[in-house]
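Inverse folding, one chain.
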């Protein structure tokens, strides 16, 4: 059986967790490993300020507070994304405005954004699908011109760049996920990236339940107080200890994932040349962090047939998001209806192939040959 995902453990997770428990003797938040991970991200990627969170969803919720959302503000978000890209902002009272994907790339089409901006627009949430960068120069220029915030949902985009700049570090704020389906994992877990200097101090306060406890622990003040709204977004140091072992192996993990990606691409490109399927397209300004590999079928029914065929061979590929603008939540809360044909294209026709560090070469070759066999028929 070839599953879609299998979490990869480097083997040192329990060592660091035991160290947190027995040696550091501190397993609440903001401990030894939390700081170690945050320092790693700030040094390696040059992010201004990072905060470990219990999920990428939590990091996005913090972002929605940091941009000062008010009831009725509009936030532009791609329709082809995970619910959290929208939900985090809906929770603070925002109305979602859905942007379509590009025709040959699931990312939001930056050329459509200007028409969606109104005087209520507060932010654009950019999602780097499959870790492939959106057209950030265009998006940042537009945001600057209209005085709106950019939040990067870089959940899938660890170690990926746009014109050499690490994703998550370009917008005002960014968020990364360490959910067990991502490249680098801690089971559940995330990272908030604060690039806008004016939000740095407040981000720490939100993280520490609305108190200035971080400044207190640094000895900057002599007692800590309730100073703002906030919540408990900081994870236990056990989660960060787990993540640390993964970060130590980041290069090795990425090297392996890129090999897998290249093998899929080489193996399947003749199907694309023949016009049977579309394969991922990496724009010149992006690099590939090898988060996923997908094929896009010519119709929803072809995809269903392909899934059925592969499942019969014990191979388990999976489809992805259902367009948010067609979700039951949007249908029963929003009165306006929009047509987003490219988002629907990826909803209906994109199929993600089995992808994990330990995927054996012979299993991957089997996935490739079975897909080719299916399309021969
Ligand atoms: C995985 C994912 C999330 C959510 O991440 P969690 O850490 O599970 O909260 C959000 N957005 C996108 C695009 C994702 O892929």
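Residues assigned per position:
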């Amino acid at each position: 059986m070839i599953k879609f995902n299998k979490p990869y453990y480097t083997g040192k997770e329990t060592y660091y967790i035991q160290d947190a428990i027995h040696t550091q003797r501190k397993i609440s938040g903001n401990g030894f490993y939390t700081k170690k991970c945050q320092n790693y991200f700030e040094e390696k990627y040059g992010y201004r300020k990072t905060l470990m969170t219990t999920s990428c969803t939590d990091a996005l919720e913090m972002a929605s507070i940091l941009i000062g959302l008010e009831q009725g503000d509009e936030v532009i978000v791609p329709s082809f994304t995970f619910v959290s890209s929208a939900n985090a902002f809906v929770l603070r009272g925002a109305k979602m405005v859905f942007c379509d994907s590009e025709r040959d790339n699931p990312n939001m089409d930056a050329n459509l954004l200007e028409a969606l901006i109104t005087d209520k627009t507060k932010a654009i949430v950019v999602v780097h699908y499959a870790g492939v960068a959106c057209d950030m120069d265009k998006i940042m220029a537009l945001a600057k011109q209209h005085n709106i915030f950019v939040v990067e949902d870089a959940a899938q985009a660890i170690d990926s760049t746009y014109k050499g700049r690490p994703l998550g570090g370009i917008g005002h704020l960014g968020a990364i996920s360490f959910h067990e389906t991502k490249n680098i994992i801690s089971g559940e877990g995330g990272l908030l990236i604060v690039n806008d200097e004016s939000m740095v101090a407040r981000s720490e306060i939100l993280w520490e339940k609305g108190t200035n406890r971080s400044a207190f622990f640094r000895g900057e003040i002599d007692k800590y107080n309730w100073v703002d709204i906030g919540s408990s977004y900081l994870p236990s140091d056990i989660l960060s200890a787990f993540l640390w072992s993964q970060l130590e192996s980041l290069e090795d993990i990425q090297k392996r994932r890129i090999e897998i990606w290249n093998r899929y691409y080489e193996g399947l490109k003749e199907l694309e040349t023949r016009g049977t399927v579309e394969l991922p397209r990496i724009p010149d300004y992006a690099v590939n962090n090898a988060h996923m590999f997908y094929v896009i079928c010519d119709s929803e029914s072809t995809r269903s047939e392909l899934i059925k065929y592969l499942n019969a061979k014990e191979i388990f590929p999976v489809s992805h998001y259902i367009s948010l603008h067609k979700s039951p939540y949007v249908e029963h809360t929003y009165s306006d209806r929009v047509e987003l044909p490219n988002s629907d294209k990826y909803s209906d026709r994109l199929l993600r192939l089995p992808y994990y560090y330990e995927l054996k070469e012979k299993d991957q070759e089997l996935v490739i040959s079975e897909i080719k066999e299916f399309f021969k028929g």
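The longest strand covers residues 121-127. Residues 160 and 166 are 6 Å apart (CA to CA).
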